[in-house]
Amino acid sequence: MSKERMGLNTRLLHEGSSKDSLCGAHVTPIYQTTTYVFDNIEEAIRLNQNQDQGFTYTRFGSPTQHELENKIALLENAEAALAVGSGMAAITTALLTSSKKGGHMIVPNIVYGCTYAFFEQLLPKYGIEVTYVDPGNLEQIEAAIKENTTTVYVETPANPTLNITDIEAVSKITKANNLTMIVDSTFASPALQNPITLGADVVVHSATKYLCGHGTVVAGVIAGSKEFVDKARFPYLQTLGAVISPFDAWLLMLGMKTLGVRMKAHCENGLAVAKFLEEHPLVERVYYPGLESHPSHEIAKKQMKGFGGMMSFDIKGGIEAGKIFMNSVKVFSLATSLGNIDSLVQHSPTMSHFDMSKEEREKVGIKDGQVRVSVGIEDIDDLINDLSQALDEVKKANL
Ligand code: LCS
Questions:
Q1: Which ligand 1 atom minimizes the distance to the CA of 160?
Q2: Tens of pLDDT, residues 274-333
Q3: Does the reported pTM lie above 0.70?
Q4: Where are the alpha helices (DSSP H) in 280-379?
Q5: Chain centroid, CA 369 distance in Å
Q6: Who contacts 264 (Cβ-Cβ below 8 Å, separation ≥6)?
Q7: Is residue 308 a contact partner of residue 365, using CB atoms and an 8 Å limit?
Q8: Phi and psi of 108, rounded to 5°?
Q9: Given CA atoms 83, 84, 89, 94 in this order, what sign does their dihedral have?
Q10: Which residues contact 137 (CB under 8 A, 6 or more apart)?
């Protein structure tokens, strides 16, 4: 049976794996070496000048990284993939690959804080203009297109307000205007959303999150056409040097084997926690695409296979209430990052989104008291009991 027709869990374990030619190791070996020995100078020239495929130096790739890239490309329905040293490396490398001198990019008004810092602080410095839009408003995207526009970038679900962008609808605009559409799909993972299948050109992930799942690796991936990925590797990865180490590529592949079963548990626990919070008298609003109250629930249902474990919520009592809550959780850890098997809680305005000013945050609905949770795969009763007792502490404070 063709592996294409097999289910996600089977594909995660078998697809893109190559047999170890040295001794048949069942698990892909870690090629922990910086350089590769050539048989003769003719081979050295062919490989170093990219006339032939092979490994020369680990900044340009390693067999362990190569296997990871094959797996990501297959998971994302892409011709090719590139693995790099962090999610930010994936985002900046993809954006630079799609850029041109004096070009212009259309970007969303809500994204991960460091992506926003790249838009604000670095792209303009090198003469690349950006226009912020509400990516839910297709007319705004169309109106922002200029002669020098190269790229439309979206992040869906968005960090931290879980805004959903209709990937297919935006891709119709980018295709009609010959623009590159890049999607940060970190919050969904390839198990829940495949932007290329929906019409995007390029997908990026912070592999640090759900792809790894165990909180042990900082890494990123880019998937797209072979032409785009080749360009991202040479000259961008080649010169910027955001390489992933063979050991991290190996750890990531270890984590990815269980992506399907982990995401199923994240989705189940996520929905249960969101429903609990939505019913709680001390919670003003829950931002979770799996809830019918989410303004883009229907779009999320159309383009995602599940809603994941990420959500934010506003506690009555603002920042003071949020602080008491975060200091009171016992099963959830107070930590930034997300997508781990264990549950995390963070304060977006002062942690992941500190790069935005209060004014900028308020404009896009990131309230001062907003708390973000990454729901893990612990037993659901323990998670709900923990949230419940932390909210009881808020109640006791009588704010
Ligand atoms: N994209 C999204 C949606 C993210 O949430 C993050 C990191 C990145 C890209 C960057 O990935 P990294 O370079 O860290 O692998 N988000 C974080 C957060 O919310 N707290 O800590 C990191």
A1: 19
A2: 999 999 999 999 999 999 999 999 999 999 999 999 999 999 998 899 999 999 999 999
A3: yes
A4: 297-303, 318-328, 358-363
A5: 24
A6: 306
A7: no
A8: -80, 155
A9: negative
A10: none
Q: How far is the CA of 358 from the centre of ligand 1 (A)?
A: 20
Q: How high is the pLDDT of residue 4?
A: 56
Q: pLDDT for 327-376, tens place per residue?
A: 999 999 999 999 999 999 999 988 988 888 889 888 888 888 899 999 99
CA 87 to centroid of ligand 1, rounded, Å: 6
Tokens (6 digits) for 169: 């609808």
Order of strands, sheet of 129-133, starting from the edge strand that comes earlier in the sequence: 80-84, 220-224, 202-206, 180-184, 149-155, 104-108, 129-133
Residue with tokens 């264990």: 342
Pairwise CA distance, residues 319 & 327, whole Å: 12
How close is the Cα of 219 to the center of ligand 1, in Å? 10
- Ligand 1 atom 16: residue of nearest CA: 337
Q: Find tokens 């001198």 and name the residue.
A: 101
Given the CA of residue 88, which atom of ligand 1 is nearest to it? 13
Q: Whose CA is nearest to atom 12 of ligand 1?
A: 87
Q: Which amino acids are annotated catalytic? A: 59, 112, 184, 209
Question: Ligand 1 site: residues with CB under 6 angstroms?
Answer: 86-88, 91, 112, 155, 159, 184, 186-187, 206, 208, 218, 220, 336-338, 352
Q: Which residue minimizes the CA distance to atom 5 of ligand 1? A: 112
Q: Which atom of ligand 1 is nearest to the CA of 207?
A: 15
Of all protein residues, the one whose alpha carbon is nearest to atom 15 of ligand 1 is 87
Angle formed by the axes of helices 246-256 and 63-75, nearest 10°:
40
Amino acid occupying residue 34: T
**Alpha-carbon distances, residue 357 vs 160, 353, 366, 367 (angstroms):** 15, 9, 11, 12
* Residue-wise pLDDT tens digits, 237-259: 999 999 999 999 999 999 999 99
Where does the chain have alpha helices with state H? Answer: 8-14, 41-48, 63-75, 87-98, 113-117, 138-144, 167-176, 226-231, 238-240, 246-256, 259-279, 297-303, 318-328, 358-363, 380-397
Rg (the chain; Cα; Å): 22
Whether the ω angle into residue 235 lies within 30 degrees of 0, i.e. cis, is yes
| Ligand 1 centroid from CA 360, angstroms | 19
Question: How far apart are the CA of 275 and the centre of ligand 1, in A?
Answer: 25
Q: Is 334 helix (H, G, I), strand (E, B) or coil?
A: strand
